[in-house]
Amino acid sequence: MNKLLLAALVSGAMAVPAFAADYTIMAPAAPGGGWDQTARSIQEALTAEGISGNVQVTNVPGAGGTIGLAQFATQESGNANALIVGGYVMVGAILTNASPVTLDNITPIARLIGESDVIVVPANSELQSMDDLVAKLKADPGSVSWAGGSAGGVDHIIAGLVAKAVGVDPTKVNYIAYSGGGEALAAVLGGQVTVGISGYGEFESQIAAGELRALAMSGENQMDGIPTLSETGVDVTVENWRMIAAAPDITDEQKAAITADIKKMAESATWKSILETKGWVDMYLDGDAFDTQLAADIESTTTVLKDIGLVQ
């Protein structure tokens, strides 16, 4: 009888899904932006695929993610259940804000996705094309106000590179930083700025609804018939990317377990469906290869930010 009871208990235990871990993911930005969307997409995929039984998302906005980064690094040390979303924007924000906390203070796990930025104007704008925007920018750089994400992030970098590519001093770009995509969108729709620049996913529904006019994409490929910057004669190609990282001071075994969970998620049908829906590019990279690429991106971003006058 005892053996039968033990067998039943073991069988019952095996029938219950063995989730690897419960995770809390910090999106170091306001709700509605790219990092928030990424964190909630990870939440969806991890739970839908049975990789984790409980995933929570928190938002800590400000200073291009460096406020959230500092909080995460100090409060979550050694916590193998804590994750944070970051990426290209955070690399730039760390440099421009001279943040004392850097990516060296956390544990990068994997690069996940890439996304083109899109340059948009309100539907009633006088600017009908990228040529019109370039002409206005050349005539008076300060008259073109750009709404985008945090100072020093990919949106700001692209605005500076566009100016530089058409012969305008990039330090004269009139860039207005917002802490989340939702705030930048409101500024564009409200006519408070000339141009909006952000990840395609953040403006997609307003473009489809005819509320915004898309002038160009920043990446290598068109989306929904929108030309790339290169196709409009502006020699700039930039693809934003986002990553997931873990807390500092976790063990090698804990890092390996988190990486395994994230890789399983990235290879799942749920995640692939999310990428297609969001228009995100699969840029998965982990391990030493990601560490090497991250170091190279930090170096190249430092050079770009010096060129546009944001870093000395």
Which consecutive residue ranges, at least 5 long each, have pLDDT under 50? 3-18
Number of strands: 10
Query: Could you give the distance between the termini?
Result: 77 Å
**Share of helix, binned:** 40-55%
Write the layout of secondary structure elements.
Layout: H1 2-15, E1 23-27, H2 34-48, E2 55-59, H3 66-75, E3 82-87, H4 88-96, E4 107-122, H5 130-139, E5 145-148, H6 154-165, E6 174-177, H7 181-189, E7 195-199, H8 200-208, E8 212-217, E9 239-246, H9 252-266, H10 269-278, E10 281-286, H11 287-307
Parallel strand pairs: 1-2, 1-3, 5-6, 5-7
Antiparallel strand pairs: 3-9, 4-7, 4-8, 4-9, 4-10
Please tell me about this protein's structure.
The protein is 43% helix and 21% strand. It has helices spanning 2-15, 34-48, 66-75, 88-96, 130-139, 154-165, 181-189, 200-208, 252-266, 269-278, 287-307; strands spanning 23-27, 55-59, 82-87, 107-122, 145-148, 174-177, 195-199, 212-217, 239-246, 281-286. The chain has 2 domains: 18-114 and 240-308, Bordetella uptake gene, domain 1 (D-Maltodextrin-Binding Protein, domain 2, 3-Layer(aba) Sandwich); 116-232, Periplasmic binding protein-like II (D-Maltodextrin-Binding Protein, domain 2). Strands 1, 2, 3, 4, 5, 6, 7, 8, 9 and 10 form a 10-stranded mixed sheet that branches. The chain is built from 11 helices and 10 strands. With 312 residues, it is an alpha/beta fold. Helix 4 packs across helix 11. The radius of gyration is 21 Å and the shape is globular. Helix 2 (34-48) links the parallel strand 1 and strand 2.
